[in-house]
Amino acid sequence: MSDVNLILAAMAYLLAKHAVADFLLQTAYQRQTKGIYGALGGLTHCLTHVVLTAPVLLLFPGLAPTTAAAILTGEFVIHYHLDWLKDQAVKRNGWTSHDTPFWWALGIDQLLHGLTYVAILWVAATYQ
Q1: Is residue 18 within 8 Å of residue 114, measured between CB atoms?
Q2: Cβ atoms 79, 71 nearer than 8 A
Q3: DSSP one-letter code for 124
Q4: Partner of 21 at 20 to 30 A CA spacing, among 46, 52, 82, 91?
């Protein structure tokens, strides 16, 4: 598989993984508590993401286990804080799905998660 095809396949996997983890597997408890810093709901939601990201790193056989662990830790920390910040903005401003800023916050949140996947793949490809 060419490098371009590998990266595109990995990105497609990560985007599909994100949709599954954020919209299909996320529980009501996780949604309701990820704006409470340190709450179990936000932590378990991010753990789901990390567990589902790990298999894509197998596409980079030269990737050191320590580098893979750093990538997964970075995803956990970044994902957790992006979700927490979005939830803080939504709750503090009282935005609901009827408010335009709610959709701006959701869209920016999703964009930043997608860019995180670009960074993950850049690191994996560079340090394999």
Answers
A1: yes
A2: no
A3: H
A4: 91
Half-sphere exposure for 81 (CA within 13 Å, toward CB): 7
| pTM summary value | 0.95
Question: Residue 77 and residue 27: Cα distance in Å, rounded?
Answer: 20
pLDDT digits (tens, 9 = 90+) for 1-28: 689 999 999 999 999 999 999 999 999 9
Q: Phi and psi at residue 60, in whole multiples of 5°?
A: -115, 80
Closest listed residue to residue 102, CA positions, set 7, 110, 78: 110
The answer to whether 12 and 65 are in contact (CB under 8 A) is: no
Are the beta carbons of 50 and 14 closer than 8 angstroms? no
Residues 6 or more apart from 59 whose CB is under 8 A from it? Answer: 6, 9, 10, 124
